[in-house]
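pls design
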């Protein structure tokens, strides 16, 4: 498994010649350990999503270094899979087609791709819904499909941006339990963004508590008992 080394990372939006704009992240240093479930916890605007997108390679690192076993992060890579709050499924593709999507780039034979896709659909308890379109599914089921699609590509690192934020409280609870059980079976390195303290404590091994203006990590807490 792969950890993530974040060294002295700062990030600014807007402004000119270093003046004005927003300091979204201010000198963040953090080691995310291989196989750990790490939560980034803090109020809206503290830079959680910015840090997650930097790790994902979706926005370029302006200052400092983010490194995995593969080397410095310079862009998106299948090593790092992401699940968004709003599911981001293709509405014109079925659950199976959505799950196959990432696999098509991996160059596996068709039969193997389909077996893999079905395996992950089963893992997230969506068997029987392979041919359903996202609009025919509940929010929780759509998020399961999004998780299956990301896991199918077998990323070493799973990045999650408030994945259950759009769900009702009861579905959210079910999904938290499912994610914990999926994580216990796959032991991926997970970075999970949330502003929900209970969610962080329930899921994470360690929690980075962030504060805003400028975005900083105030404490890293070991929740240990989730292991
Ligand atoms: P979050 O759910 O992480 O709090 P926000 O609602 O703050 O997200 O932001 C949603 C989107 O808008 C993100 O893509 C973010 O990058 C962008 N965004 C947030 N704040 C600003 C801003 N001041 N100017 C432009 N884009 C912004
Ligand atoms: P969080 O995920 O904790 O809500 P974000 O990383 O979305 O925090 O945002 C951190 C800060 O950066 C906020 O002040 C937000 O308004 C600002 N911000 C985020 N995205 C953009 C953007 N694209 N342009 C300008 N400001 C942004």
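designed seq:
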């Amino acid at each position: 498994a792969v950890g993530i080394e974040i060294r002295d990372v700062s990030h600014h939006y807007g402004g000119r010649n270093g003046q004005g704009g927003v300091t979204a992240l201010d000198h963040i240093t953090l080691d995310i350990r291989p196989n750990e479930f790490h939560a980034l916890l803090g109020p809206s605007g503290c830079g959680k999503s910015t840090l997650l997108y930097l790790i994902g390679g979706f926005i370029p690192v302006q200052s400092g270094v983010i490194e995995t076993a593969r080397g410095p992060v310079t862009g998106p890579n299948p090593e790092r899979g992401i699940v968004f709050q709003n599911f981001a499924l293709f509405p014109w593709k079925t659950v199976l087609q959505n799950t196959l999507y990432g696999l098509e780039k991996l160059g596996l034979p068709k039969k193997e791709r389909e077996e893999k896709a079905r395996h992950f659909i089963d893992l997230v308890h969506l068997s029987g819904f392979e041919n359903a379109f996202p609009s025919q599914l509940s929010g929780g089921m759509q998020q399961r499909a999004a998780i299956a699609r990301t896991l199918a590509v077998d990323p070493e690192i799973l990045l999650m941006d408030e994945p259950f934020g759009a769900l009702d409280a009861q579905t959210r609870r079910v999904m938290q339990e499912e994610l914990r059980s999926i994580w216990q079976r796959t032991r991926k390195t997970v970075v999970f963004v949330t502003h929900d303290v209970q969610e962080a404590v329930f899921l994470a091994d360690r929690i980075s508590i962030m504060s805003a203006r400028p975005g900083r990590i105030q404490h890293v807490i070991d929740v240990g008992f989730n292991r």
